[in-house]
Amino acid sequence: MTTQAESYEFQVETRQLLQLMINSIYSDKDLFLRELISNASDALDKLRLERFNDDTLDVDTSDLHIRIDLDAAARTLTISDNGIGMSRAEVVDLIGKIANSGTAEFMRQLKEAQREEADTEELIGRFGVGFYSSFMVAERVTMITRRAGQAEATRWESAGEATYTLEPVDSAPQGTSITLHLKPADPEDRLFDYTDPRKVREIVTRYSDFITWPIRMAAIPVPGDDDEADEAAEPAEETVNSRKALWTRPAGEVTDEEYAELYKRISHDWNDPLETIRLNIEGTLQYQALLFLPERAGANLFSPDAKHGVQLYVNRVFVMDDAEELLPAYLRFVKGVVDSQDLALNVSREILQQDRQIESMRKRLTKRVLQAVKGLAANEPEKYTKFWGEFGRVVKEGLLQDFANRDAILEICSFESTNDPEKRTSLRDYVERMPEDQDKIYYLTGDSRQALENSPYMEAFRAKELEVLLLTDPIDEVWVDGMPEFDGKQFQSVAKGDIDLHEDDTAEEKEKQKEQYSALLTWMGEVLTKEVKEVRLSSRLTTSPACVVSDQNDATPTLVNLYRAMGQPIPQERRILELNPAHTLVEGLRSAHEARPEDPKLAETVELVHGMALLAEGTQPDDPARFVQLLATQLGETLGR
Question: 404 by DSSP, 3-state: which?
Fold first, then answer.
């Protein structure tokens, strides 16, 4: 039976839209194949569902699949499926849907995106235009479709200009076949040769590898094979998508090797993952996640321009690399896949930033990663030690960024301490070791463990065997300064505030000592009035003559320098000079001041004491040259006696 094809005109807005597509409003033209495969997969899903709901439907569902055929000579790409198919009325409605009210909104958003020079790829599919993305790469598109259970098929064809044609077809297989008559390849315009089977396989692997249904293509001949007897035979066929969406399979059916294979593929890492994390959420919001903790940190972990984040899929269809909105920045080392059943295909980054569902997913994924690290610390200490050595500095960024999870982050942190030179400690273990009368968590920040252990601030704590956390990461200076407490115990720097560890001294003895040194302290405060706000006796020193400390709420010099390096200059407050009254230098200085208070050499000695205290903490005197000159002069005079 031969029937005249009927011609229909596109509406004005639709013609404008098609012209924009044909003129390459999208930089990534490969997206057309993702859209067509997704449509085919939907058609197969619908057929299976309809067959389940209507057992009288006479269709074969034993081999549901998608097929891609390439013809380099004719320059065609054909994608077909044996899914639900469409009736003529459905072709008019579904394929013509672009001409409905959604087109005006699509055009408005498209023009706005172009005006703002924003990415426009995400607009494909959001207004039913996925099928029309074919015209980015095709001069003409032909579709033949037959709905399951019906006898008559429909042929639709258009060159993407003013019109399209419809005509009935007597005989056609169930499902839909779409043939793209391809434009000439133009690599400069990112229009590739889509008759090249390797290019097509690359696109399938990138975007549609985990589609439920098999995607079949003719096998690529192996060079060197010579089988002339089979030249007339059909070429071998093979499935080109792995279909191994491991996150959808029961955990007991997935091997460690399969997890490692997926991790290496998405992370480009040669090593196996340190830990695998699965998450399956059902209910009003449905999604699965398969996340990995790497064994080693990447070279770009601290690079401000580096892209991080997990891969985002929608119903097994790849949508986005580096979806950083799904995890906070301090977990940027986490690799993996999140597959949502509720997000729209081609969801944009702007929508991800604003979507409440994304915020809910982010909270759940973050909580699950922190729980996994906590599990490593409790059950697999060797793994945890390796993890913390690689990523501890990054995780501690969360103490500044994620106040909602601050307690959970503190629980998984570990620190060097004076308790054990070979083993780090958690805050929980520190608190459990605290003496009953200790009500604070003591810490000291600095550049290295060796420098901190030799610091004068540690002397009294070492003498009394009080454990001190040794914080040597630059970020420790920032977070610990604003951390209120852990488990009801406040953090206390051993280099800040007025710490009194001389519990054995009576009030009478302390008062007597203050009276003895009152005149010296007042005079030294006057000599150093530009450098310090106060000179007082110290209870934290046992062997050093003096140290310089900050007030409880003042920033330390290291923190001030850190902020200045980040372009945030803050003033340095004058600090406090503490003297050890039991040191011979301090005792001698007091006696000398009582005997000859007008001696100018004593004022120089005070400058030297202050300079030595600064050097002991790792800080330079304000005038290093003067300090060296004074020291050399006094040493020379001493030797000359």
Answer: helix
